[in-house]
Specification:
With about 270 residues, the chain is an alpha+beta fold. The protein is about 35% helix and about 10% strand. It has one domain (about 45-255).
Length: about 270
């Protein structure tokens, strides 16, 4: 009897038992990993909000130094703007890590300035290039058609009336409400990359970067769905925060009245240009 008990005690696990344990571990991992990934993304959203906050502080200081005029939003790349001086290049998209780094390094000089090339309008206030990028950027995503590599964010083109004003003739801050959204994290997988051809956008902008946004579909929303399907934004009162993606979409699709996204003060609907 003693020998039998010792044999049972020392025989170990059977193959079936091991397979069952492995299967249970796999099921638990499959359940937990997505939750951990979402938690990590939300944690990185904190970095995004800080980025937006620092940029909005830079905007506020620029306004104080420039008689209440806002920095140019970057409606095209032929004029100096908040993030870069005119003529930035080479533009993307890129398909390799080497090409990305080369193009990024070249573009970042238009933010920091070099030689006879001036810096972006907010460089003297925010300095750090990393404040322009979301930490979750994946610049080599197969369906990424991004042309501007140095920033994850765009500005609201309402700053120049969505093109009604010359690109460097901005409106004054006092023309807007403090709650109005100036900056948002852009859609990193937008169709065709049309809303990544410069530093500002309509809230709705088709994949060719045209049509003024009005009448476009939800497919042309320019807001990122990262970080738990929420957008990180900067407001004209200098604050920054997080807005649910569904709420941002609701604002963007409402093209008939002024709201915190369609903010052109020279238009009754907020989107006239």
């Amino acid at each position: 009897m003693k020998t039998y008990l010792q044999t049972r005690k020392n025989r170990g696990f059977t193959l079936v038992e091991l397979l069952v344990v492995i299967a249970i571990i796999a099921i638990l991992a499959a359940m937990l990993l997505p939750a951990l990934s979402r938690a990590k993304s939300r944690a990185l959203a904190t970095n995004d909000i800080n980025n937006c906050k620092q940029t909005m502080m830079g905007m506020s200081m620029y306004v104080l130094d420039n008689q209440d005029f806002l920095p140019a939003p970057g409606w095209g790349t032929a004029d100096d703007c908040w993030a870069a001086s005119k003529g930035i290049g080479p533009l993307g998209p890129v398909t390799t890590a080497t090409a990305y780094q080369s193009s990024y390094d070249a573009q970042i000089k238009f933010f920091t300035g070099y030689g006879n090339t001036p810096s972006g309008l907010l460089y003297q206030y925010i300095k750090a290039p990393k404040l322009l990028l979301c930490p979750e950027d994946n610049h080599l995503d197969a369906i990424w058609k991004r042309q501007i590599l140095i920033t994850s964010y765009v500005w609201n083109g309402a700053v120049i009336g969505y093109g009604a004003n010359p690109p460097n003739k901005t409106l004054k801050l006092n023309k807007f409400k403090g709650s109005n959204i100036l900056q948002w994290e852009n859609n990193e997988k937008g169709p065709g990359g049309g809303n990544w051809n410069d530093f500002s956008s309509y809230p709705l902008e088709d994949h060719n970067g045209a049509n003024g946004g009005v009448g476009n579909s939800i497919l042309d929303i320019t807001f990122s769905q990262r970080h738990g399907k929420a957008a990180q934004v900067g407001r004209l009162d200098g604050s920054a925060g997080r807005i649910p993606y569904a709420e941002m979409v609701g604002l963007a699709l409402n093209t008939t009245t002024l709201n915190d996204i369609w903010i052109n003060p020279n238009s009754a609907t907020g989107n006239g240009h």
